[in-house]
């Protein structure tokens, strides 16, 4: 449960920083003639709508204020408790805000589908926490949503990495800066990584491959999140560039936390199966059976039914 709290908190806190310190990506949705026409009906002038060099306009002001909703969501991620339905509702609202944000980035990217899909892990991080609190961390629906979170994140990234959609220039640039390789080598590394992205999306549905698949997802998700500050921060920058790049890693926390959550869940399940199969193994090996399961104890068919 702590993992899910940390994941949702870091994601929402990272986007809160974008809203309060930089600028949220809603402009592509709001800088429209229709939006201004609506504002004009309420007596809002053009100068008030767009702002001036000295003052923010209506759009910038409300985009900034939306950042405080993300701050509230981040606080709720840490403080929410079981059966606190109002707080859970607030987290669902935070997930809806994340969806609107992802849709704005999707429109800004000329409606490239992977841009929307790869935000699935971030959008679902508050939802996953709510499900774990309401239904239980091992409930079937909770695990399915965690798997969906992983698949959307890595499938979206994989589409860009293998070139099904135009690969963002930042992808090979980060590889080149961090590894010190040329552009062509960075592109080849991306293609391999993209193929592996699709492999793990399939592998988590195959019991024998789940463990290695989610472990790879944890490592690759963590490295791609960390790549932003590693490639961008410098001692020559103000605050070493922390204000520009640390939040980029924080808001991507669900990319590696959701796979880690799945790994721990499936590993615990295997341990339980091993413990449950213990009495049967002893009986089959010819060892003495406990008196509790002798003539006066539980019949063999009942024992197998518990397993």
List the helices and strands and how they pair.
Layout: H1 2-21, H2 27-30, H3 33-41, H4 46-50, H5 58-79, H6 85-108, H7 113-117, H8 120-134, H9 140-161, H10 170-179, H11 183-203, H12 207-232, H13 242-250, H14 254-276, H15 278-284, H16 300-306
Helix pairs in contact: 1-5, 1-8, 1-13, 1-14, 5-6, 6-8, 8-9, 9-11, 9-14, 10-11, 10-12, 11-12, 12-13, 12-14
Q: Report the average pLDDT across residues.
A: 85
* Poorly predicted ranges: 279-307
Which of globular, elongated, flat, extended, rod-shaped describes the shape?
globular
Count structural domains. 1
Beta-strand residue fraction: under 5%
Q: How far is it from the N-terminal to the C-terminal residue, by CA?
A: 26 Å
Mind summarizing the main beta sheet? none
Order of helices and strands: HHHHHHHHHHHHHHHH
Percent helix, as a range, is over 70%
Query: How many helices?
Result: 16
Total strands: the figure is 0
Gyration radius (Cα, Å) is: 24 Å
Q: Class by helix and strand content?
A: mainly alpha
């Amino acid at each position: 449960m702590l993992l899910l709290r940390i994941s949702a908190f870091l994601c929402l806190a990272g986007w809160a920083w974008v809203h309060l310190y930089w600028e949220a990506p809603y402009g592509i949705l709001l800088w429209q003639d229709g939006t201004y026409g609506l504002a004009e009906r309420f007596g809002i002038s053009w100068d008030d709508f767009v702002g001036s060099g000295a003052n923010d306009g209506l759009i910038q002001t409300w985009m900034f204020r939306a950042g405080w909703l993300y701050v509230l969501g981040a606080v709720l991620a840490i403080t929410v408790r079981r059966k606190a339905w109002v707080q859970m509702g607030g987290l669902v609202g935070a997930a809806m805000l994340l969806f609107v944000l992802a849709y704005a980035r999707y429109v800004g990217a000329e409606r490239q589908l992977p841009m929307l899909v790869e935000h699935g892990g971030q959008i679902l991080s508050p939802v996953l926490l709510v499900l774990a609190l309401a239904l239980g961390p091992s409930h079937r629906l909770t695990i399915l949503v965690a798997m969906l979170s992983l698949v959307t994140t890595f499938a979206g990234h994989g589409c860009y990495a293998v070139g099904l959609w135009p690969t963002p220039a930042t992808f090979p640039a980060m590889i080149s800066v961090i590894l010190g390789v040329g552009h062509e080598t960075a592109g080849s590394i991306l293609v391999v990584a993209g193929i592996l992205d699709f492999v793990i999306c399939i592998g988590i549905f195959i019991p024998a491959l789940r463990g290695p698949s989610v472990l790879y997802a944890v490592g690759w998700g963590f490295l791609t999140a960390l790549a932003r500050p590693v490639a961008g921060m410098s001692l020559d920058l103000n605050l070493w560039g922390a204000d520009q790049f640390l939040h980029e890693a924080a808001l991507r926390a669900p990319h590696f936390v959701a796979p880690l959550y799945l790994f721990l869940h499936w590993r615990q399940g295997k341990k339980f199966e091993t413990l449950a199969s213990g009495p049967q193994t002893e009986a089959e090996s010819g060892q003495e059976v406990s008196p509790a399961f002798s003539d006066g104890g539980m019949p063999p068919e009942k024992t197998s039914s518990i397993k």
